[in-house]
Amino acid sequence: MTMRIKATETLGVDSTDGAFRIVGMARDGVVFAESCATVPQALAARLADGARCAAAAAPASCLLFTLQPPDLPESKLVRILPSLLDVQLPLPLSECQHAFTREGKACRAHAIRHSDLARQLDTLRQAGCDPARIVPPAAAAWSRALVEFPPQADDEPRALFLCGSAQTLLATGRGRALERQTVFKTDAAEFPKRLRLSFSGIPENLVCIVAGAGHALASQALRDATSGGATRLETARSPEFLLARALAADAAREGRWNDANLRTGAFAHPSVTRRQSRPIFRLAAALGVCSALLLPLAGLILARAQTEARTAERAFESAVDNLAGYDVKTKGERAVQDARAGLAAQFDAVIVDYRDSVVSSRLARLAEPAAQAGVTLHHLALDGRTLTASGTAASVDKAEEFIRLLGDAGFRAVLSEAPKAGPDGSVQFFLHTPQP
Q1: Is 0.70 surpassed by the pTM of this model?
Q2: Cβ neighbour number for residue 399 with a 10 Å cutoff
Q3: Given this model, what pLDDT does residue 354 score?
């Protein structure tokens, strides 16, 4: 491959399917797209530096959660989002890298184990690539699909299939909002099955977008499964490079809190550290020049610096006390730890009250579907995300009608087993929320 790569171009690297698919992008669009088994020599230096490069995290390693935070200013929202995520994570938050994105009032949390992220970075570096950004593939591809196929309505059901040769990533949501993701073995029978599980059936006016190396297999399987319905089936432009193009666009992002980049903190890329250090170096140089020019006033400057240091120390102590909600007696790093502990204690009650209100509102929405279907519920277990119930219906059709009405009310539920007929002709049923 012969090409001239400009420093202003961004690179997207998709290595999720066992090979490298690399896209270069500039302001006027895609500059090149290359599929290869190893890093091309022409790109070796740029990919090894990785300063304007984004790669996708391994799909099976990424977790996606929908958070419903209280209506708070952004400064306070950023502080409580990790606590809301910690409630839903199946493992300690301290063992994960996480990032938050926001669409309207709903927030999405993306998480990956430290060990999984470290392993992937090692693999990429051994191949000659050290990307500044590691992004969940569902988030990146979903954003690109919105550009190619803008939603026609705010609640339009959408499904995006990223079909690799061995595994497929399915991302689903409504309108612009990404809600769920699942990874499964690439197999023709799995495409319609996973689609139905994600939506508890095939919703009206569904838009299915297929991309990736296996897009043709997915298109045929979905076409056969949705024939005669109102489903719209679309194939992404340059389907094998959809994710790489999405990553190249993502590489131009400026880091801020509403960003899906998982490579932060201890995993931050050296280019980020260099960028953050430049203002400090410039300040140090300026202070050196000023010191040489203002040597006669050194004593006055020193006295002023000491005064400012004492003022800064008092401001730090005040900030720590405000954060904790009480007068913190400890000093230095221990004071910060104690203040964080105090902050967590303040938010616990808020989070518990919010969780209870969510469950209460969901419980109220259960009553109307039960009444419309004429079912009697004998047992009900409900929290902010899942529903488990048993009950009696006049017939199997009524039990299935109840499940459809639950779906319209925002509950995902399937029958745990076939309904059992009773002596009086009624049936007993059991249902639960399926795992994603």
Answers
A1: no
A2: 23
A3: 47
